[in-house]
Amino acid sequence: MKRFRFPLRPVAILRAHLESRAREAFAVAVQRYVGTQETLDTARRRATQLEAALHHGRSGSFNAADEAWNLQAYRREADVEIEAERAVFAAAELVRQRRNEYLEAHRQAEVVRRLELRARVAHRLAAAREEQAEFDDFAGRRAARQKPFFAR
Question: How far is it, in rounded angstroms, from Cα 152 to Cα 150?
């Protein structure tokens, strides 16, 4: 039986490598998204705490300087929250893009894997046919050498 040789093996190796790199890029994008989501959660928590402090501070006497400073701090926190939301949206878009790239690389690698599988099946079938032909030839030669059981 001849040894199996897949002619597209270099292509399969290259596509597997590209699939691996795309998977890693997707994982990095997911990690970045999770990090930006955590940053957004922190910014929202800080803004909520500042809002609570502002509402609590208004229950006492009014001080214009303190209120101006508090409002300015609240605006800074709101700006940080808005930037964090933008970062989350950008990271989500990057995750979507990397996922699509990974899926495409996976599809391309899968095409070569299926071609290799079909070639292996065809090779095994051809080898089995060749082996059966050898057995048939051997049995035919052996039968031809034997003397007939009943001689006339």
Answer: 7
H-helix segments, 1-152: 9-57, 64-145
In what helix (H) or strand (E) does residue 63 lie, and over which residues does it extend? none
Residue with tokens 């034997």: 146
Round to whole Å and give the CA distance between 113 and 12: 7
**Confidence at residue 142, expressed as pLDDT on a 0 to 100 scale:** 84
CA–CA distance, 40 with 63 (Å, rounded to integer): 31
Per the structure block, which two tokens stand in for 124?
């095994």
Enter the DSSP assignment of 119: H
DSSP reduced 3-state for 5:
coil
Q: HSE on the CB side for 92, CA within 13 Å? A: 8
AA identity, residue 63: N
CATH 1.10.287 fits 9-145, yes or no: yes
Count helices and strands in the chain by DSSP H and E runs: 2, 0
| Global pTM value | 0.73
What number is the average pLDDT over the span 119-142? 91
Q: How far apart are CA 28 and CA 85, in angstroms?
A: 19
Summarize pLDDT for 48-102 with one digit per residue, the tens.
988 887 777 666 777 777 778 878 888 999 999 999 999 999 999 999 999 999 9
